[in-house]
Amino acid sequence: MTTTTFDTMAYAKRFKAAGFTEQQAEEVVTALREIRDDRMEESATKGDIELAKLELRKEIESAKVEIIKWVIATGIVILGGLATINRMFPPMPIYLQPPAQELRLPTPAPAVPPGR
What we know:
Elements: H1 8-17, H2 22-42, H3 46-88
Protein backbone atom coordinates (compact mmCIF):
# COMPACT_ATOMS: atom_id res chain seq x y z
CA MET A 1 0.00 0.00 0.00
CA THR A 2 1.29 3.46 -0.82
CA THR A 3 1.31 6.16 1.82
CA THR A 4 0.48 9.79 1.25
CA THR A 5 1.37 12.63 3.53
CA PHE A 6 -1.31 14.74 5.12
CA ASP A 7 -0.03 17.99 6.53
CA THR A 8 -2.36 18.45 9.49
CA MET A 9 -0.67 21.65 10.59
CA ALA A 10 -1.23 23.38 7.24
CA TYR A 11 -4.89 22.43 7.20
CA ALA A 12 -5.37 23.49 10.81
CA LYS A 13 -3.89 26.92 9.95
CA ARG A 14 -6.24 27.23 6.97
CA PHE A 15 -9.24 26.47 9.16
CA LYS A 16 -8.09 28.96 11.82
CA ALA A 17 -7.68 31.58 9.10
CA ALA A 18 -11.23 30.85 7.97
CA GLY A 19 -12.57 31.61 11.44
CA PHE A 20 -12.49 28.25 13.23
CA THR A 21 -11.27 28.10 16.80
CA GLU A 22 -8.10 26.09 17.45
CA GLN A 23 -10.09 23.21 18.94
CA GLN A 24 -12.55 23.16 15.99
CA ALA A 25 -9.70 23.22 13.47
CA GLU A 26 -7.94 20.31 15.21
CA GLU A 27 -11.16 18.27 15.32
CA VAL A 28 -11.88 18.85 11.64
CA VAL A 29 -8.31 17.97 10.64
CA THR A 30 -8.41 14.82 12.81
CA ALA A 31 -11.72 13.78 11.23
CA LEU A 32 -10.32 14.38 7.73
CA ARG A 33 -7.22 12.33 8.51
CA GLU A 34 -9.35 9.45 9.82
CA ILE A 35 -11.52 9.56 6.70
CA ARG A 36 -8.45 9.54 4.48
CA ASP A 37 -6.91 6.64 6.43
CA ASP A 38 -10.13 4.65 6.16
CA ARG A 39 -10.30 5.28 2.41
CA MET A 40 -6.65 4.32 1.98
CA GLU A 41 -7.28 1.00 3.74
CA GLU A 42 -10.19 0.29 1.38
CA SER A 43 -8.37 1.26 -1.80
CA ALA A 44 -6.31 -1.25 -3.75
CA THR A 45 -2.92 -0.71 -5.30
CA LYS A 46 -1.84 -1.94 -8.74
CA GLY A 47 -0.04 -4.81 -7.03
CA ASP A 48 -3.24 -5.80 -5.21
CA ILE A 49 -5.15 -5.78 -8.49
CA GLU A 50 -2.50 -7.86 -10.27
CA LEU A 51 -2.50 -10.37 -7.41
CA ALA A 52 -6.29 -10.59 -7.57
CA LYS A 53 -6.09 -11.14 -11.36
CA LEU A 54 -3.62 -13.99 -10.91
CA GLU A 55 -5.78 -15.63 -8.26
CA LEU A 56 -8.85 -15.24 -10.44
CA ARG A 57 -7.07 -16.84 -13.41
CA LYS A 58 -6.09 -19.80 -11.21
CA GLU A 59 -9.67 -20.20 -10.03
CA ILE A 60 -10.97 -20.02 -13.61
CA GLU A 61 -8.50 -22.70 -14.73
CA SER A 62 -9.50 -25.01 -11.89
CA ALA A 63 -13.18 -24.38 -12.67
CA LYS A 64 -12.54 -25.30 -16.33
CA VAL A 65 -10.95 -28.58 -15.27
CA GLU A 66 -13.88 -29.37 -12.98
CA ILE A 67 -16.39 -28.60 -15.74
CA ILE A 68 -14.57 -30.88 -18.18
CA LYS A 69 -14.55 -33.67 -15.58
CA TRP A 70 -18.30 -33.28 -15.01
CA VAL A 71 -19.08 -33.23 -18.73
CA ILE A 72 -17.08 -36.42 -19.33
CA ALA A 73 -18.60 -38.16 -16.31
CA THR A 74 -22.11 -37.13 -17.36
CA GLY A 75 -21.50 -38.42 -20.90
CA ILE A 76 -20.33 -41.77 -19.55
CA VAL A 77 -23.39 -42.07 -17.31
CA ILE A 78 -25.73 -41.22 -20.21
CA LEU A 79 -24.07 -43.76 -22.50
CA GLY A 80 -24.25 -46.41 -19.78
CA GLY A 81 -27.92 -45.68 -19.24
CA LEU A 82 -28.66 -45.94 -22.95
CA ALA A 83 -26.78 -49.25 -23.16
CA THR A 84 -28.77 -50.59 -20.20
CA ILE A 85 -32.08 -49.52 -21.72
CA ASN A 86 -31.03 -51.10 -25.02
CA ARG A 87 -30.32 -54.39 -23.24
CA MET A 88 -33.54 -54.35 -21.25
CA PHE A 89 -35.74 -53.29 -24.15
CA PRO A 90 -34.03 -54.32 -27.38
CA PRO A 91 -35.26 -52.59 -30.51
CA MET A 92 -37.80 -54.38 -32.70
CA PRO A 93 -36.13 -56.47 -35.39
CA ILE A 94 -36.50 -55.19 -38.88
CA TYR A 95 -37.59 -57.92 -41.26
CA LEU A 96 -36.60 -57.67 -44.86
CA GLN A 97 -39.60 -57.88 -47.07
CA PRO A 98 -39.40 -59.28 -50.57
CA PRO A 99 -39.66 -56.68 -53.23
CA ALA A 100 -43.19 -55.86 -54.26
CA GLN A 101 -44.57 -57.77 -57.24
CA GLU A 102 -44.87 -55.85 -60.44
CA LEU A 103 -48.37 -54.88 -61.30
CA ARG A 104 -47.83 -54.79 -65.06
CA LEU A 105 -49.30 -57.57 -67.10
CA PRO A 106 -46.83 -59.92 -68.75
CA THR A 107 -46.19 -59.32 -72.40
CA PRO A 108 -48.51 -61.36 -74.57
CA ALA A 109 -47.10 -64.31 -76.46
CA PRO A 110 -46.60 -63.74 -80.16
CA ALA A 111 -49.54 -64.74 -82.23
CA VAL A 112 -49.14 -68.01 -84.11
CA PRO A 113 -50.79 -68.17 -87.51
CA PRO A 114 -53.60 -70.75 -87.68
CA GLY A 115 -52.73 -73.98 -89.36
CA ARG A 116 -49.33 -74.20 -88.47
